[in-house]
Amino acid sequence: MIWNVEEFVRAATVTVEGLAAYVDESQRGGSPVLGRRPPRELAEKLGLVRWIREGGMTPESYAEFLAAYLDEGTRLHHPAHLGHQVAAPDFPAALADFVHGAANNPMAIYEMGASAATVEFEVLRWMLDTVGFGDTGGGVLTHGGSLANLTALLAARAAAAPDAWTDGVPADLALLAPASAHYSLTRAAAILGLGERAVMPLDVDALGRIEVTRLPDALDRVRRAGRRPMALVAGACATGTGLHDDLRGIGEFCAETGVWFHVDGAHGASALLSEEHRHLLDGIELADSLIWDAHKMLRTSSLAAAVLTRRESDLDAAFQQRASYLFYGDQGSDLIGRTVECSKAELGLKVFLNLAWRGERGLGDHVARQYATARRFWELARQRPGFTCPYEPESNIVCFRYGTGDQVEIRERLMEDGAFQLTSAEIDGVRHLRIAVMAPATDDKTLEALLDRIGEEGRQTSR
Asked: In sequence order, which residues have a C-beta less than 8 Å from that of residue 57 and are 6 or more positions away?
């Protein structure tokens, strides 16, 4: 059935009006930040089974469905959304999703989406220049940081064991990483065939940061165990705490010892755009590979993550492939040789449109503003009795405790009525509450209200 363009325009108008009202209400904080209705009950409310089996939705019935659907989700633009590291997307990125939804140009093969591929090339060139890799580096955008970490480690594996793709993974490879590393790195080690036991821990301080002076000891342990390092992973910043490893010190050690240096900059690499905070990434140009998520601090919708390598040939070696219907003739403009995905969405358009509207400075100002709001929370919390903060924040992530009671119970009480969303993390074996300031609407009023509520709930749990 061909498109009914008139019906599409009516439905698209409903969508734009519904989303505009949803974002406006969310930014004002006039509704709960999240809903947690049980799945079976929610499916019934949305009429999912009926719509799946019978169809027949019209622009009018779609408007009712969309309103209910949005009302039952999580409002990332809400000032009280302080939970997960997912952007409150800016509207240019939303426009890109709309364009892709209609045009659908999966562009890992250039001829399937020349404009989309060209936009991605230029976005990647900008990212490579920003991190200091310049014209010698290579890059690709993937659907998320987990896939980006996997891709980067595939490049590292190809460098350490060039025959692994055809002959299998040598049993002596090891991945060096701190316990604070994102779970996707251990998962990638298992997917790559190394196994979890090949992930060998690095010495860290009480806050989970890599101790550079003890790296020689770690490398010695790896070699005495009969293994050779495939890569060493550092965080910029750590997912749990928002703290940064010493990239320059680690990078210099890796350069001296010939160890592949991978930086997980999924969250923190965007600080390169802020003059006030780019020093946190000092030494990032020494990395052999790094990842950078646009769907975190660059305000794009999920998912859009960059894999960047200092040497373009390293990324090109990550995959090997054969398919006579795809690979023939000049493949110079195709990205499929660098990704797991073939039908890859027009990810670069989301980043490009945000840049085109806001510019580098505008996105850098957003990073600085969110970091400043997190620091403001830290300052306010320290002034209140019962609150303890184990470190001074370096990003928009803050961990803290209230009292000595069950911090998870405090979190659950806060989320019961949808008033606030926040998460939790362990630091040195101790459970903490955790906020990630992602929504531009979060302000002092929100922070004070959150601290008031935590105090109230914390006193209740300790009785």
From this structure: 51, 65
